Amino acid sequence: MNPVRMQFIREKLVETALDDSEHKVDPVKPNILAGLDVLDVGCGGGLLSESLARLGARTLGVDASESNIAIANHHASQDSRLRDNLTYKHTSAETLLSQPKRYDVVCSMEVLEHVDNPTMFLSTCAELLKPSGHLFLSTISRTPLAYLLTIFLAEKVLGKVSEGTHTYSKYIKPSELIEYFQKYRSPSPNSRPWITRTYEGGLPTRTEAEVRGLVYNPLQSNWILAPRGAWGATDCNYILWVRKPGSSP
Amino acid sequence: MLRASGSKACRVIRRTCGRWSSTSASHPGEYDVVIVGGGPAGLALAGALGSKQALRETLKIALVEASDLSKVHDWNTSTSPDTFSNRVSSLTNVSQAFLKGIGAWGEVESNRTAALEEMQVWDGMSDARITFSAAEIGLEHPEEGMARITENLNLQRGLLRHIRKTPGIDILDKTKVQSITSEGTGQWPLVHLDNNQTLKARLLVGADGLNSPVRTFAQIPSFGWMYDTHGVVATMHHAPRSAFENPNTTAYQRFLPTGPIAFLPLSPTVSSLVWSTKPALASALKACDPSIVARMINAAFRLPEVSLQYLHDRILSSHTSSGTPTSDSDIRDEIRWREQSHAIDPHSAYSSSAFDAPTSSGIPPADSQMVPPLVKSLQPGTVASFPLRFNHTEAYIGEGKGARTVLVGDAAHTIHPLAGQGLNLGLGDVECLARCIETVVLAGGDIGSYTALLPYTQERYFENHKVMAACDKLHKLYSTTLPPVVWARSMGLEVVNELDSIKAALMMTAGSTPATGPSNAALNVNGGLGQTVFNVAASGFQVFATANKTMQAVQTGLTSAATRALQAAAKAATGSKGEGK
Asked: Tell me, what's the pLDDT at B100?
């Protein structure tokens, strides 16, 4: 799944860079994240963090599990290119909030569906961002299809994932996330909600937020980043991008 | 804090030991890609990686070659424009498009290559014939031909010149790989060279040919067999085609029961031979006087199979110690007598009487285009032969202790040369692998990891196997002299020859039509529904490959189940008998 997540991150950053400035951005520039501070919340073994670091980001990966951090550190130590700009910390996002450091990009992949208090988790991630920062979240929607694929098939029938990993009631629909960011305002004075308008059917505008489905193709055993607005694509795994409003209104 | 100081120390070490130039065994030089093998596939891969800006900026690439590449670089062609190397390949339009795309085609000396405008292929037993013409198969530029006959050295030199201009690629020639080791599962392989250098590779590419050391290291098994056939090559000189004929841009191939013989045009008066035949005859021909070989080549394209059989036996017996040596005039008289007895008109193109006559410039016989021009002489020292084999590895990517390895070209597959696809398949691999690596780099992935390289196998394995299997079956189909088979295959060939659309489709799969329009995944911001649909559809085809594997597994399972059932039945039978007693 990692290549499609990275593909989406790259596409979105190129797109917003084009929107923000008149300068032409080279879409095939390898170190697209150079000079950015990137936080990976729930980094696990560091799959995404390593990719982010390879694209030039000053990456911090945090995870609540100490053993995950040890695995991630061990894996990263085998690649000398990662020494300079990849760090892992055994801590939580809430702890980071008490420190002054803020990030250009915050990613949290496949974490939201395991969190007990999603609204608090979302606001923590949101506040860790600098103004105009990018938040990338990927998770699973709460639909019968998602139950069938991620719990019934993956856990009970095929046993690819150990039973009890996922809880259906904790899954969150994309529309619920969009609704959350339509109301959410940063604590600073005269801030606006992150999503100010939507199209008919509740889809956000391209410059504020975007939801794309991640579809597994069992024939090629790879993941596909579904096209924008593809029917039913966000009914199972999906990735959300939402941007913090700039500091000046 | 500890971590910070640690990383600082690492940086100092890297700076002081010099990252690439002075790499000793104790401090291995780290490379992102180490390519073993400086043949066409290895050089093309280095060139393809270097041609992509994203990769040029991020990857440190080394190419290791045992021989002296300056010989390839300084390969001298100024002595005479009529002297050609005996190893040539037919580069399909797809391969040419790839070489143009990476900017290497401009370095290939194009006036030493020849466009192939027509192909004539016929059955040595029945004379059933099929003709492929660039003008007929709906090419965009028929004058560019279906393929281009190119000397391998010309291609290699072009690629090498191109790479020398690309920064960031270290070429280590005159350097042998002594051993390849790994520190454990998934670790970066260490390539130990004979100059005491050690290279640590994020990705180790085996472009090192049939007996690939990289494949041995990665412990990738392969399956295949030797054909009881050797390929004889030579550079042939002949008179130019006259003003009444098509220029020398037609390739001829005749399928003899001993193997196909092919005539590949290089220039108006020079062509290249690829003659697949029995190993004994190949070595006998190499030992013969070049003039006899030239006569035998002419005969092989012209005489009926029964006479060829006799001539071959004659050459073979003269080659053995007890046999009587055969002189040039013996062969000349024998061929002349056989032409008379087959009632071949001495003025027709099927007669080799003009071999001993001065070149005439009259009106050519009506059938002059049915056979290649009469070979007058062979370029001295160009007759050579090599064994032919079929070989395909079971995987292209190494796993476990052999992780971070990938195979391209002949290291992964060896093919019968009858369709001239070997080099083209290798270049197809290279194009795909370079594209795959670029995608991974742009996504921040680790190019050495198994999952990163998986799309390469998925795209190439079945594709290569299809072409390889087709060539293998053709070789086997045409090696028989059984009348019903000859009748059926001739019938099939004649029918296909009448169906232009099928011929065009055949040529398309043989790489005559390059894909239109460059596709760049990184630019395709919205994904595109069409692309997704296509991806899913394309993967449908892959199910066939998987289904085949499944079928095999099922078959094995059923066989063992059946065996067990039989055994149980037998036991029960003997048991009841015993009880009965």
From this structure: 94
Query: Are B226 and B387 a contacting pair, CB within 8 Å?
Result: yes
On the question of pLDDT at A195 being above 80, the answer is: yes
Residue-wise pLDDT tens digits, A1-43: 889 999 999 999 988 888 887 666 777 788 889 889 999 999 9
pLDDT in the model for residue B570: 67
Residues on chain A touching B54 (C-beta within 8 angstroms): 28-30
B205 contact partners, CB below 8 Å, separation of at least 6? B33, B34, B35, B36, B42, B45, B214, B405, B406, B407, B408, B433
Structure pTM?
A: 0.85
| DSSP conformation letters of B460-520 | HHHHHHHHHHHHHHHHHHHT---HHHHHHHHHHHHHHHH-HHHHHHHHHHTT-SPPSS---
| pLDDT score recorded for residue B432 | 96
CB B446 within 8 Å of CB B452:
yes
E strand or H helix at B318, and its extent?
Answer: helix B305-319
Kindly state whether B515 is in contact with chain A, defined as any CB-CB distance less than 8 angstroms: no
Could you write out the DSSP letters of every residue in A8-50?
HHHHHHHHHHHHH-SSPP-TT-S-TTTT-EEEEET-TTSHHHH
Q: Which residues between 145 and 174 in chain B have a beta carbon less than 8 angstroms from any beta carbon of chain A? A: none
The count of other CB atoms within 10 Å of the CB of residue B549 is 9
Instruction: For residue B202, list chain A residues with Cβ-Cβ distance below 8 A.
Output: 79
B441 CB near a chain A CB, below 8 Å? Answer: yes
Starting at the earlier edge strand, list the strands of the sheet with B114-116: B88-92, B147-151, B114-116
* CA angle at B271 for the pair B266 and B277, rounded to the nearest 5°: 130
Residue A52 at interface with chain B, using a CB cutoff of 8 Å: yes
B374: tokens are 């009469």
A79 touches B at CB < 8 Å: yes
Q: Are strands B250-256 and B118-123 parallel, antiparallel or unpaired?
A: parallel
Residue B397 DSSP code: B
Give the mutation candidate from B525, B543, B546 for the A interface (greatest A CB count, under 10 A): B525
**How far is the alpha carbon of A85 from chain B, nearest alpha carbon, in Å?**
10
Tell me whether strands B413-414 and A37-41 are parallel, antiparallel or unpaired: unpaired
Q: What is the pLDDT averaged over residues A76-84?
A: 87
What was the ipTM of the complex prediction?
A: 0.90
Of A79, A87, A227, the CB nearest to B532: A227
Write out chain A residues lying below 8 Å of B525, CB-based. 11, 14-15, 27
> What pLDDT is attached to residue A4?
92
What stretch of H or E contains A119? helix A118-127
Spans in chain B with pLDDT lower than 70: 1-27, 76-79, 321-323, 359-361, 514-581
| Rounded Cα–Cα distance for residues B140 and B154 (Å) | 26
What residues of A are in contact with residue B443 (Cβ under 8 Å)? Answer: 2-3, 6-7, 10, 51
Radius of gyration of chain A (CA): 18
Q: Which tokens sit at A163?
A: 């039973």
- The overall average pLDDT reported for chain A is 89
Q: Are B443 and A2 an interchain contact pair (Cβ–Cβ within 8 Å)?
A: yes
Residue A169: the pLDDT is 92
CA angle B121, B84, B144 (to 5 degrees): 55
Cross-chain residue pair A219–B445, CB shorter than 8 Å: no
Q: Does A190 have pLDDT greater than 90?
A: no
